[in-house]
Specification:
This protein is α+β, with helices and mostly antiparallel strands and 297 residues long. Helix content is 40%, strand content 27%.
Length: 297
């Protein structure tokens, strides 16, 4: 059955590229329209786009993507919006690093895989503007396929109304799929984006899913698209509201300490980071999520 998903895989990969283009354009638009702090002393930021590639152990092509990173913008201190479509065979360590599907029947005998997705992390100049993470993806093997992803907000200085807007927007995009989807994915995000050794969440949550395979590919793809479509209306108004706020040295210090928490989570617990490194993807692209500066006290 899964062998027949060639067209569906192409559609998923094309959607992740389309979403990437929308987000890159919107973020560069924020840079262009900014008139607050740093606008007089810094040019509007632009993404640097670099192709990425994977090579199989036998030297053959194993896919790749685009790494789009903006550094030193007026609004974004560092933001990456990466897409990739990779394929090949999964070694034992890579199989163990898979987000949800471990021990798939038949995988050891036929370890082929295909994966495509978009991954975004934004670290802001203004400590009052929240950092954010988003990713959506599709994974295929000859034995199973599934979707995953979500987005979560990571402010270092929390505003209750910002958190409410972020969650309300995601709920509005999920509700057409059924009233149970938002509470389910919110609870999943609360569990997944938790830092056990700090005994706290890394942010104020959002939505997250993994291993989504209802058996109806079209339905699951539409759900995944709507998770992606929720991102810009959930996030852009928060940046527009907070990017002009004056900040103090104490605010910046709070931001740097919070970034340390974010880095700890991504390096110790994030399954996507582990899987990307285990499957030989470009390390710079995989570790794009790390902040440019952080602090531990």
């Amino acid at each position: 059955m899964t062998e027949e998903l060639v067209t569906e895989r192409e559609r998923a990969s094309a959607w992740f590229k389309e979403l990437r283009d929308q987000i890159v354009a919107a973020f560069e638009g924020l840079e262009d329209s900014h008139t607050g702090p740093l606008s007089d002393s810094m040019p509007a930021g632009r993404f640097e786009v670099t192709p990425t590639s994977r090579t199989a152990d036998d030297g053959s092509d194993a896919g790749g993507g685009l790494m789009s990173v903006m550094r030193g913008g007026r609004v974004f201190e560092k933001v990456g919006v990466n897409i990739s479509t990779v394929y090949g065979t999964l070694g034992e360590r890579a199989q163990m690093a898979m987000a949800a599907r471990k021990g798939i029947p038949g995988m050891k005998e036929d370890p082929r895989f295909w994966a495509s997705g978009i991954s975004l992390v934004a670290h802001m100049q203004n400590p009052h503007a929240p950092a954010v993470h988003m990713n959506t993806r599709m994974f295929w093997t000859p034995h199973a396929w599934w979707f995953g992803g979500g987005s979560d907000l990571n402010p270092c200085i929390e505003y209750a109304e910002d958190t409410q807007h972020f969650h309300d927007t995601q709920k509005a995009h999920l509700d057409p799929h059924g009233a149970d989807w938002y509470p389910k994915l919110k609870a999943w995000a609360d569990e997944y984006f938790y830092v056990p050794h700090r005994k706290r969440a890394r942010g104020v949550g959002g939505i997250f899913m993994d291993d989504q395979c209802s058996g109806d590919w079209e339905s699951d793809f539409t759900l995944t698209q709507d998770i992606g479509k929720a991102f810009l209306p959930a996030y852009l108004p928060l940046v527009e509201k907070r990017r002009d706020t004056e900040w103090t040295d104490a605010d910046k210090d709070t931001q740097l300490v919070h970034r340390g928490l974010y880095a700890e989570y991504n390096l110790v617990y994030d399954r996507g980071t582990k899987f990307g490194l285990e499957t030989g993807h470009d390390a710079n692209a995989v570790l794009m999520s790390l902040p440019p500066l952080a602090k531990w006290v």
